[in-house]
Amino acid sequence: MIDRFNTFTTLINKISRSILKIKTKEMSKFGLKSTHVSCLYYMYKNEGKLTARQLCDICQEDKAAISRSLEYLEEHGYISCDAKKEKRYKSQLCLTEQGEKTGREIAEIIDNILSKSDMGLTKDEMAVFYKCLGVLSKNLENISERE
Prior knowledge:
Elements (H helix, E strand, L loop, with lengths): L3 H24 L6 H12 L3 E3 H8 L3 H13 L3 E3 L10 E4 L1 H21 L5 H24 L1
Antiparallel strand pairs: 1-3, 2-3
Helix pairs in contact: 2-4, 2-5, 3-4
């Protein structure tokens, strides 16, 4: 393939920028930022119950970013946390009624965007694509950790 590096990095960057633009545009009506969206989406998809530690793993975000997002979401009535039993980082978070409603709306928006993004591809092609993307991601992660 001619100029494989340029093609690969350009496409990955374009996808990343497009996702960020879509998140910013779609979530502005909720007054939420990208990490807020991820937290609410994954909380909703996991029936509203996760810990901050689990969100860090699922969202692939650092502890500080998740902590800031959770603080915002709690202050604005999307989630609640009972940190009396354990350290806050290990405590179960729960979606409030507002968080459940917003999480559902976010999930619907994401599902709609995903169905539009893979138009023209079969389910088998998408399965191969995600398998390849996963292998590339893992290989690059391994390379970056060895350096």
